[in-house]
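Feature request, filed as a ticket because there's no other form

It would be nice if the structure record came with a short human-readable summary line next to the tokens. Right now we just get the raw output. Example of a typical job, pasted below so the devs can see what we mean:
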Amino acid sequence: MTINTEAPVSAEQQEILAKLAAIIEEIAEVPADRISLDKRFVDDLDIDSLSMIEIAAQTEATFELDIAIEELAELLTVGDAVELVLAQRA
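Raw output as currently delivered:
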């Protein structure tokens, strides 16, 4: 599910990434300029499980979608989250 960071990123992926970065910055206080597709939520951005639930809830509201707990557990990178949003929009 992870985006190939060497492949060109579409305008839609860039839009989703920008919105996710704003959500992550607001909730976890991680500067948006540190957030990229290949960053791992826990290992790179130090985001804990409670913050991930808050990020998921805000992502659901922002993009008008539903994220199942099982899907949340599979989100390891920001790119995974972008792909999940893209998949649910389709």
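Something like this underneath would help us a lot:
Helices lie at 11-28, 49-63, 69-74, 78-89.
Confidence is low (pLDDT under 50) at residues 1-6.
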